[in-house]
Amino acid sequence: MPQKKPLESNVNANSYVVGVDFGTLSGRAVVVRVHDGAELGSAVHEYAHRVIEHRLPGSDVRLGPDWALQSPQDWIDVLKIAVPRAIAAAGVAPEEVAGIGTDFTACTVLPTTADGTPLCFETPAEPHAWPKLWKHHAAQPHADRINDLAARRGESWLPRYGGKISSEWEFAKGLQVLEEAPDVYARAERWIEAADWIIWQLTGVESRNICTVGYKGIFQDGSYPSEEFLAELNPGFAGFVGKLATGEVGDKVNGTTVAPLGGLAGRLTAQAAEWTGVPEGVAVAVGNVDAHVTAAAADAVAPGQMVAIMGTSTCHIMPSDQLAEVPGMCGVVRDGIVPGLWGYEAGQSAVGDIFAWFVDNFVSDSDHERLTALAEQQAVGEHGLVALDWFGGNRSVLVDHNLSGVIVGQTLATKPEDVYRAIIESTAFGARMIVETFEKSGVPVQEFVVAGGLLKNRFLMQVYADVLRRPLSVIGSDQGPALGSAIHAAVAAGAYPGIEEAAAAMGKRTEAAYVPDEARADAYDRLYAEYRRLHDFFGDGRMLHTLRAIRNEASA
C-alpha cells in the first residue's frame, strides 16, 4: 500500500467529512476522519420503495417489462435518517464536520419542474413522472434508433461510447418519455441525474457534474448532440438539451456549465442542515457516480488502474493518459474520474443480481453460502456447463439490453451448485472480455482492483483471479462509494489540493490479495473459449430478441 501523505490544508487535522452513497436498494452514510481516512461511524437506511418494477406505489398502475423506477422521497429520507445516525455512531460533534460528498447510481434520471420538484410528486399515477433507475431497460428501442441514426450521420461522439449509446443513458430514456408520455415531457422543465438533483436539494444550487454529463449525457468536446440530430430522431426532441439546463458551478463551455469532480458545489442550506444535523454552510462536493468515486476510496486513480465495483451489477472504471476507441465501452470522458486524465467506463448489467435470481427462484432449501461451499469443491469444468452472463442484458461489449442469459450443457445429472458455479464463472468471463477488449484497443490494464459487496465471497474472487489470469487487488473498505464521496468532500472543503492527494491519504487497498492458480487458469482458458463461441453466436440477438418479443407480446 502506498505511503500515506500528510495532511496539507487549513482544515483542522481532527475535522471530519461525511460521505453519502445512494445505492439501488438503500442509502448509507459514513463519517470519515480527514487526515487519514479512518471510518468512525456509519448508518444504512433501506429504501421504503426499494426498486419499483411492477406497479406504482399506492396504485393499481402496472409497469411494463424491463421497467425500474425509484422514489425521490427515499433519497431525502437517507439524508434525514442515515446521516444523523452515522454522526451519532461516530461520536463526533456536528460542528466538527467540514464537508459532505455524495454519489449515486447512474444513469438514474428524473423529470422535474424548474425549481427541482420531481414530477412524480405532482402526478404520482403517471409512470413516466417517476425517476428511471439505472437498470430501467425499457428504452432499448429508443437507444437503437439513436445508435442507427448516429452511425448513418457519422456523429463524431459515437466512437467515444464504443459505437453504441446504452438504453440506460439520459437521451434514450428522455426519448422514451417524449414518445410514450408527451404531456410529462412537456411539463418536464429539467431532465436531471439524481446525482445532481440531490446536490440541488443540499445546496439550493443547480449544477451538472462532468461525470454524468459525459458518460450518461453524451457531452463531448464541449457540446451535446446537435439540435439537427435530435430533430431527425423526432421533431419534438429538438429542444431536449434545453431540459439539461446547467447551473452555476464550474466553467462554461459553449454555453454549458460543467462542474469539476472534487469541486465545491455549494454550501449546505438551512433546510438541508435540519435534515442532516450538520451545520448550515458546510461545504458540499460536486455530485458523482458511485462507481467512479470508488476509485479514490481504493487509491486507484493512476493510469491503468481498473476498478471493478461488484454488486448487483459491475461497473469497470479506469483512468488513462491515452484516448482510444474501445468497442462496447460505456464511454470515455476527459476528467471523468480525476481531472487531467481520460476516464474509461465499461460494465456488466447484472452480476450479483444473477446469483440472487437463481437462489431466490430455484433453490428453496439452500442459500448463497451453502451453494458456494458445494461449488468450491468442484474441479474447473466438472459441471460440464458454460453460461452467458446476459440475464440483465449486455452493457459491455455488445451494449444490448434485449439480450438474455444462456446456460448450455445441462443434463438430468445437473445440480443446483453446478448452475451456481457456472453463472459465477460466466460473470468472470464477461469481465475478461472487457479487459481483453480494452487491451486490444491499446488501453493497457495495469492493475485490476475489486470493490463492492461481492468482495465478501472469497471463492468468487479466486475464480476471477483464475479466469483473468492476473492478481486481484482489493479495496480496504466495506463502504467504497461512501468513502470515495467523503474523500471528494475533503477536497471540496479545502483539506487537499486534489483528488489524487486526498486518495493517497484517505484511500486504501491491498495489492495482489488474490493470485491466479496456473492449473486452474489453464482449465478456464478452455471454458472461456466456449464462452467466446456462445458470445459470438448469440450476440447478434436474432434468437434472443425474438424470444423477448414473443414474451412481451404474450404478457401484454
TrEMBL record:
Kindly indicate whether the keyword Transferase belongs to this entry. Answer: yes
Q: What class of enzyme is it?
A: transferase
Gene3D superfamilies named among the record's database cross-references: 3.30.420.40
What this protein catalyses is:
L-ribulose + ATP = L-ribulose 5-phosphate + ADP + H(+)
Q: Where is the Carbohydrate kinase FGGY N-terminal domain?
A: 16-207
Q: Which InterPro entries match?
A: ATPase_NBD, Carb_kinase_FGGY, FGGY_C, FGGY_N, Ribulokinase
One Pfam match, given by its short name, reads: FGGY_N
Q: Name one GO molecular function term.
A: ribulokinase activity
Report keywords, A-Z: Arabinose catabolism, ATP-binding, Carbohydrate metabolism, Kinase, Nucleotide-binding, Transferase
> Its pathway?
Carbohydrate degradation; L-arabinose degradation via L-ribulose; D-xylulose 5-phosphate from L-arabinose (bacterial route): step 2/3
Q: What is its EC number?
A: 2.7.1.16
- Superkingdom, according to UniProt? Bacteria
List each copy of the Carbohydrate kinase FGGY C-terminal domain by range.
Answer: 307-493
Know the name of this protein? Ribulokinase
Q: What is the lineage of its organism?
A: Bacteria, Bacillati, Actinomycetota, Actinomycetes, Streptosporangiales
Q: Which gene encodes it?
A: araB
